[in-house]
Design a protein that fits this description.
The chain is of the alpha+beta class. The protein contains 12 helices and 27 strands. Helix 1 (about 55-65) runs parallel beside helix 2 (about 85-95).
């Protein structure tokens, strides 16, 4: 019987070598000889029932990842080995796959019958997947090295026994089988792990979260995290995340009016992450006032909107932090070469860490991912009290001397209050720190020391820009409810919305009654009186402005 397979050719290398001037080892991927910063997310099963997952659904989800400039997805070890369509689509779209072996967050048996079953399973999966050019790496498990070292499951009294079992399963069985069946494949024993250093320490490192080696998982749900500069400067961040709720329209068919409250029995039960609701709410309280509508449906919808803003802002900050750090050392830390946030997709409609809803609709986070994973971008931060500005260029690096403009805006005016012209000379590296000056002195120069009344905006080469907010939104007294008018222009398949506003509006969110419509941008700061947003419709149906609704931050308050 004749069978055919599509194949591709590429060289993938995982580089772990000493770094000049620092302890530890690098951890980055070279593709066809070129070091590549991995931008992406973590993949979980797209449905509780695999038989319901169509190729069209997989294509929509992976295409959304591609549109957000992702080049790697990590298939989480608590899920499944995905169907052939998933890997074939990843091949076609140029998305690399970090493939966990399906072990996660548990101690497993090592009796002979179980190990024989595992050898058979791994052999089958390697034969099934190894020809895919998208397959970049095998990881032996999800978080089990960390679980054993840090005593997650009360194993410390029998540590030697569990360590022996760990090596028997993941090294002598999983690793040896993969090495035999996929001789050119790359293998790390766990995620997170110290990779080569974990092997040197007998496969269970003293600190599997050591930022000087391998990959790190990072979660911190403390309030007030947007503009912190104390995220781990690891070599590779393979998990980090924050929860939000999916759109009210996705929940409404399955709920009753008594459920439409963040403290309802439904909300607390539906969130399966321990203390998840309180973590979401504490972060919201730090930055925002609660919505004030008297209508339960509107108020819950506005609450969901705040959860998505909160999630998007947090993941934006960590992702940009990683990208800024890719060619800088901070003591022994830094040289970060990957940022895969948790998580891309969802298995049901409920609160989770995903940037895509169960239906495939984009949350605010996914629009932000399209920005913070863009090949070229500006990123601003406060580091040790200094305002820093970075220009990040993955490719086509412009090395000419040029000028970046830093503006100070009042929330009450479309016209910048003042600006600084910053000469820029870019080095031949991806991440260039082009400005580094004490924040308070910068604000004095710009005459905008009253921080709640102002925000900063950086612009370079006309097409690159970024805003920096100086205080929690709840402290901004000059923001007022805008009047945003919507116009519709263009014809199928290229159409556009024209938005006109009489006031600056943060977090402008455009939604539509047309399923899974993707806009050029969304969830953005509207600082100009008029902008145009392109979008593509799935068919030539007639449209009017009544198909669209627009919400901004001040619209959720009476």
């Amino acid at each position: 019987m004749m069978r055919s397979k599509s194949i591709g050719f590429r060289i993938v290398e995982l580089i772990q070598q000493p770094i000049k001037g620092a302890k530890g080892l690098s951890f980055y991927f070279k593709i066809n000889g070129q070091p590549i910063f991995m931008k992406g997310s973590n993949w979980i099963p797209a449905d509780s029932f695999q038989s319901r997952i169509s190729k069209d659904k997989l294509q929509n989800l992976l295409y959304s990842a591609k549109l957000a400039h992702m080049n790697m997805l990590r298939v989480w070890g608590g899920g499944v080995y995905e169907q052939a369509d998933f890997y074939e689509l990843a091949d076609e779209m140029g998305i690399l796959i970090w493939q966990d072996v399906m072990f996660a967050c548990a101690m497993y048996p090592t009796d002979q019958k179980f190990l024989e079953n595992i050898r058979s399973e791994i052999t089958h999966q390697v034969h099934r997947l190894k020809h895919h050019p998208s397959l970049a790496l095998w990881a032996g498990n999800n978080e089990n090295e960390a679980a054993l070292r840090d005593n997650w499951y009360d194993t410390e009294n029998n540590f030697t026994l569990y360590q022996k079992d760990y090596i028997e399963l993941y090294i002598k069985t999983v690793k040896e089988t993969i090495n035999k069946e996929h001789m050119s494949g790359i293998f790390v024993s766990s995620s997170p792990s110290n990779a080569a250093q974990s092997e040197k320490e007998g496969w269970i490192a003293q600190n599997p979260y050591d930022t000087k080696y391998g990959d790190v998982h990072y979660y911190n749900y403390a309030a007030g995290r947007y503009y912190n500069d104390d995220y781990p400067r690891s070599r590779f961040m393979s998990e980090y995340g924050y929860q939000s709720w999916p759109s009210f329209s996705s929940l409404k068919p399955h709920t009753i009016s008594q459920d439409w409250n963040e403290f309802s029995e439904f909300a607390l039960y539906r969130n399966h992450h321990g203390q998840g609701q309180e973590q979401i709410n504490s972060q919201i309280r730090y930055y925002f006032n609660p919505p004030t509508s008297s209508d339960p449906a509107s108020n819950f919808s506005n609450y969901i909107y705040l959860t998505q803003i909160n999630q998007a802002m947090y993941i934006r900050m960590v992702s940009e932090f990683c990208r800024r750090s890719q060619n800088y050392l901070y003591g022994d830390e830094g040289m970060t070469m990957g940022a895969l946030y948790w998580q891309l997709n969802d298995i049901w409609p409920g609160p989770s860490w995903s940037s895509l809803e169960f239906s495939g609709s984009w949350k605010i986070l996914h629009y932000y991912a399209k920005r913070f994973f863009a090949p070229n971008m500006i990123s601003m931060a406060v580091e040790s009290g200094n305002l820093t500005v970075y220009i990040i260029q993955d490719n086509n690096r412009n090395l000419q001397s040029t000028t970046l403009t830093l503006y100070c805006y009042s929330w009450a005016s479309f016209v910048p209050q003042s600006n600084l012209k910053i000469p820029v000379q870019l080095a031949d590296v991806v991440s260039n720190r082009v400005f580094n000056e004490n924040l308070n002195k910068v604000l004095e120069k710009l005459n905008c020391t009253d921080q709640p009344r102002h925000f900063l905006f950086a612009s370079w080469e006309k097409s690159l820009y970024s805003e920096f907010i100086l205080s929690p939104y709840k402290d901004i007294t000059t923001l007022q409810k805008p009047n945003i008018e919507v116009g519709l222009i263009g014809e199928y398949p290229r159409r556009a919305l024209v938005l006109r506003t009489d006031r600056i509006a943060p977090f402008v969110w455009v939604s539509s009654d047309i399923a899974n419509l993707i806009f050029q941008d969304n969830g953005f700061l509207l600082k100009d009186q008029q902008i145009t947003i392109n979008f593509t419709t799935p068919d030539n149906r007639p449209l009017s402005v009544r198909n669209f609704t627009v919400k901004s931050l001040m619209d959720i308050y009476l």
